[in-house]
Fold this protein.
Amino acid sequence: MPKPQHGISLLESLIALLVLSIGLLGVVGLQTQSLVHNRAAYFETQATNMAQDMLDRVRANPDQVAAYELNVGSTVLGSGLPANDQSEWVNDLASALPSGEGGIAINNRRVNVTVRWADASAPEKVRQIQLVSEL
């Protein structure tokens, strides 16, 4: 009469451990991708908020709209409120976004604010948003 088996064999234990390990690696991969995409979404939210901030600054000073013109990546020149607003904005972009820079195009009463930054998931890529507003 054969002896009844007690417990599980070593081979069954190793296979169960292998399946569990593969599952855990998959969960870690998903978590890593989630963190990367959350960071990219955070930067996009920051860029949108900063572009909206500059539109609000331009709207608050309608008499000097033309003085807010700024090419993307260029240095702020001039003095007065528009130059002060631009300097603060450019510094905020540089500190809050990776390689953050911005520009403002004015065409009559139409303001186009552009914000660019390096993509967190692929640093060789550049992300950009544009907000347009009529004054």
